[in-house]
Specification:
366 residues, alpha+beta, 6-stranded antiparallel sheet, 61% helix
Length: 366
């Protein structure tokens, strides 16, 4: 073997070795979409957690928008059905009045005018018949006036009903468009989060779970802090038990808590209200409906429509509303714990009531 040949073989072997090393050392194909950071490129587990939280939060915000649009569309569809029935009745009434007006006109024509009737009384062979026809004529005249006025009113009502139905149809189409846009956003955010989670290595998944457990421990401590300090108050309310701790659920609240707890383990599915799956407000609304006290469907409507109580007086069955935009809700079960449907990919479970930023507490049936 000459030097040049040996040199080429050494170079070839060296290049092959370098290529193999490059393949072995390079990261495996990720699951992130183009333009999205691969969760295994050195990003800290805290940053990964923050990114996932952000994606699922955005999906939940869109879910509330979807639920609200869905509720609105359902009411609009019901209203439109009623309006269409009213419209049909109005159209029939106008037709009946038109027929009645024609009959009255024919009656008047047969009776003649009053002057002709007077001549018949003087010259006719049948004066009784002439008087009868005169009476019919006067009645027909009054009937024509009444029918004409009623026709005018009926046509106005028909016009109003037509306009109302047309407006309701436009609003329904708008709500359906909002619903479709929210659905698209939900699916996009969830898909992105799922790609990130699927791309995590086993060790990262383990560390992520450990981080969530630590956060839960800290959240529980925040709710039951020294002196029973309520979340976010910054001050103690005196020595004693934590807010709501030790209070037992009873009556309708007890039924609502029992229903919610019986759903533990069922999956979170956005837009779902049971019986096999729920989203956060779907669970709370279904629980209180089962207790005989229907409440609004969405967490935002629950926050806006139910009686608000102080955090320090929270008791089992009350609803804890989270985030400034009221886009998550859980049911307080006592002892600083709540039951809720967390997010896509998770099941209904209990968690510390201070797991998320608390907006306030509402009490159904109060």
């Amino acid at each position: 073997m000459n030097v040049s040949t040996g040199g080429r073989r050494l170079l070839t072997r060296g290049a092959t070795t370098a290529l193999v090393c490059a393949i072995l050392l390079s990261p495996a194909p990720g699951h992130a979409a183009p333009g999205e950071p691969d969760p295994r490129d050195g990003t800290s587990i805290e940053d990964i957690r923050a990114e996932l939280d952000g994606l699922y939060r955005e999906a939940e915000v869109a879910t509330e928008a979807y639920n609200a649009a869905n509720e609105k569309a359902a009411k609009q569809e019901k209203r439109l059905t009623t309006l269409r029935k009213d419209l049909t009745r109005a159209e029939k009434r106008v037709k009946d009045l038109r027929d009645l007006a024609g009959a009255a006109a024919r009656t008047q024509y047969r009776g003649g005018d009053l002057a002709a009737t007077g001549i018949q009384l003087l010259l006719g062979d049948h004066p009784d018949q002439a008087l009868d026809e005169a009476s019919q004529a006067r009645q027909a005249m009054r009937g024509l006036v009444n029918v004409s006025e009623t026709q005018k009113t009926a046509r106005e009502e028909l016009s109003d009903q037509t306009e109302a139905a047309t407006k309701q149809l436009r609003e329904l189409k708008s709500s359906r468009a909002d619903k479709a846009a929210a659905k698209q956003k939900i699916e996009k955010k969830i898909a992105t989060a799922e790609r990130i989670e699927a791309g995590l290595e086993e060790e990262q998944t383990r560390r992520l779970a450990a981080l969530e457990r630590e956060r839960a421990r800290q959240a529980e401590a925040r709710w039951t802090g020294p002196g029973g300090t309520p979340v976010g108050s910054g001050k103690g309310k005196g020595k004693g038990s934590a807010p709501g701790g030790g209070t037992q659920a009873s009556g309708a609240a007890g039924k609502a808590v029992g229903f919610a707890m019986a759903q533990i383990g069922k999956p979170y599915v956005w837009g779902a209200v049971g019986p096999s799956s729920y989203d956060c407000s779907g669970l709370t609304s279904a629980a209180w409906a089962a207790a005989g006290h229907p409440i609004p469907r969405t967490s935002q409507a629950q926050w806006g429509g139910l009686t608000r109580v102080s955090l320090s007086s929270a008791r089992p069955g009350d609803l804890i509303i989270y985030y400034n935009d009221a886009t998550h809700v859980g049911m307080y079960i006592g002892g600083g714990q709540m039951v809720h449907a967390p997010r896509p990919g998770r099941s209904i479970t209990t968690a510390p009531a201070a797991s998320m930023p608390v907006l306030g507490v509402v009490r159904p049936g109060a």
